[in-house]
Design brief:
The chain has one domain: NAD(P)-binding Rossmann-like Domain (Rossmann fold), CATH 3.40.50. Helix content is 36%, strand content 19%. It is built from 9 helices and 13 strands. It has helices at residues 11-20, 43-46, 59-65, 84-104, 128-141, 167-176, 196-208, 230-241, 281-297, and strands spanning 2-6, 27-32, 49-53, 70-73, 109-115, 148-154, 156-158, 181-184, 190-191, 193-195, 217-222, 228-229, 246-249. Helix 4 (84-104) runs parallel beside helix 5. The radius of gyration is 19 Å and the shape is globular.
Length: 298
Amino acid sequence: MKILITGAFGFLGSAIAKKISQNKDIEIFALVKSTSSSFRFSKTELNRITILYSDLINLEDFFLKNKFHVIIHTAIDYGRTSTLSKLIESNLVFPLKLIELAKNNDTKLFINTDSYFNKGISNYGYLQNYIITKKHLEEYLKSYNSITIVNIKLEHVYGIFDAENKFVTSVFNDFVNNSKTLKSTIGIQKRDFIYFDDVVLLFEEIIKKQVFFQNKYYCIEAGWGNSIAVKEFLQVMKKITNSNTTIEFGALPLRENEIMDSFADKNTIPTFVDWKPKISLEQGIKKMLIHNQELDEK
């Protein structure tokens, strides 16, 4: 089986590529930009995948030469530094082009990664253009009926190797480094925190059960199905990391039209998909702490 993963050097894409490539019956092709870093991979892990540079190859020709059974689309542009036209190209035009190539070359399954930001919530004041492009893409995905499309709406995914500017990684670093203070909102907004290893297992399960899916659009929400307040989350992390950092709740304002509560609807998971999260919040934070200690020892 051949699987193409876009954004395979990113946080989630790399984790999926590393896990699935352990199956010797699966050949992984990683579609990345030539400027992307492979720091999340060991040499052994890189040897298990074939790297393709999206800006240096002709995708149409490559699809003709390679019949992919599955495409996993994790590449994303949050638009923090991109122009609007570049954001539309990356988040809308590019995945639609991939689906068209997939349809024309007998790909059976297209898995798209989405976000809880795009759950019918409007006017959220954070990454607005990113959210708009994801909403438009979802509408187009719903129109396909000659290929199985699984759109996975991720709740708040966290774990080792995530970007330093992401919320969980950022506050974790503050705690383990015993920063004097950590400025926070009042922390009443609630999130469904899920460790990235659990999410990877969902992708793996969907691939295993692909024969049970019909040629239509599916939306699966990935999370525990319950949420906790950010304030509680920070207090749990501070305790586990044994940090001396003082949390200043209320020092930061809530974002405009803040999402006050988000959690996965477990009923969106098809009955033939045997998956549920296993790594609790406490276990996930401890895994991050162990990884951090191992890095310090090197």
